[in-house]
Structure to design on (324 residues):
């Protein structure tokens, strides 16, 4: 006699939970939304993330408040989002470095695939290989030749261990066989400043951060990391063309929510990303920074991230990269 009653109660609980989730999704968002970025203010991911977040806020009717929580290759911000309530009020904007951390760090408190729901990719762009004019290095080939002549003596800056700029360096190192000294910084602005003054010989940086310093002559671009040239620097060859056939590195950015966030909310946020990226003012500002808007559905972005985790993980294992 008790079993039917128990089953009925269970059905009632499930129904109430479904109604609650639907009601939450219908009233979402009812308050401001936090967006965590694991890299420093002024970095390209910070700039792109803030542009998109501000535009999304207009469509959602609530402000998206961006917070920079730097450290450990973006894992501090990612960890905080992974452990947040899956209610759509704490989001993450991360880069291709999100795909690297599982193989780079031991004992991560989260899984880069299982603990996040992909919302959408934001943009796609190359990293640029840069030197100061004072280095008198005119091409990527000249730099690689110099590095081979002086193994271990060329300092190579990046935005930090596990960052996309670091992973681009590792791909270049594997492709060319060079031995260089990696100098990790806290973020892109810091590494660009020291590259321009010659404190480090060379560095990779996202194109959006590099363009201004290239145009005013403080940095010389030697190559871009994507398989095709950038319309923003059409005269600059690719690494694939010059010193590393087959190298193709996309410094992508994307938006994530905690796993188990109601699908209605994830889909709503994804639609708002697409609207933001399609707006003429955002498209122009992103294009002026050398990036391409790349909105995607949650399903497309989840599949893309899984593929990137496999791809970048292979680079890390092949390069025997370790966190010191």
């Amino acid at each position: 006699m008790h079993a039917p009653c128990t089953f009925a109660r269970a059905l009632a609980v499930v129904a109430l939970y479904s109604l609650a989730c639907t009601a939450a999704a219908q009233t979402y968002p009812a308050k401001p939304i936090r967006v965590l970025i694991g890299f420093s203010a002024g970095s390209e991911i910070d700039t792109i993330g803030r542009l998109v977040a501000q535009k999304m806020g207009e469509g959602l009717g609530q402000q998206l408040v961006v917070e920079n929580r730097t450290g450990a290759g973006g894992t501090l911000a990612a960890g905080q989002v992974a452990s947040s309530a899956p209610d759509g009020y704490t989001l993450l904007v991360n880069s291709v470095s999100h795909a690297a951390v599982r193989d780079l760090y031991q004992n991560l408190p989260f899984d880069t695939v299982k603990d996040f729901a992909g919302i959408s990719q934001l943009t796609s762009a190359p990293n640029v290989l840069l030197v100061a004019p004072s280095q008198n290095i005119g091409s990527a080939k000249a730099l690689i030749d110099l590095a081979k002549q002086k193994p271990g003596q060329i300092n190579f800056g990046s935005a930090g261990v596990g960052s996309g700029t670091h992973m681009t360096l590792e791909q270049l190192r594997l492709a060319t066989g060079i031995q260089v000294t990696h100098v990790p910084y806290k973020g892109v602005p810091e590494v660009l400043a020291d590259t321009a003054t010659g404190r480090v010989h060379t560095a990779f940086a996202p194109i959006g951060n590099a363009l201004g310093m290239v145009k005013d002559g403080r940095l010389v671009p030697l190559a871009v990391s994507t398989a095709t040239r950038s319309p923003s620097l059409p005269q600059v060859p690719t690494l694939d063309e010059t010193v590393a056939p087959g190298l193709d590195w996309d410094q992508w950015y994307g938006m994530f929510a905690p796993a188990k966030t109601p699908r209605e909310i994830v889909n709503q946020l994804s639609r708002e990303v697409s609207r933001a990226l399609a707006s003429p003012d955002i498209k122009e500002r992103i294009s002026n920074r050398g990036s391409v808007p790349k909105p995607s559905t949650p399903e497309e972005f989840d599949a893309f991230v899984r593929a990137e985790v496999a791809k970048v993980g292979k680079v890390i294992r092949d390069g025997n990269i370790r966190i010191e």
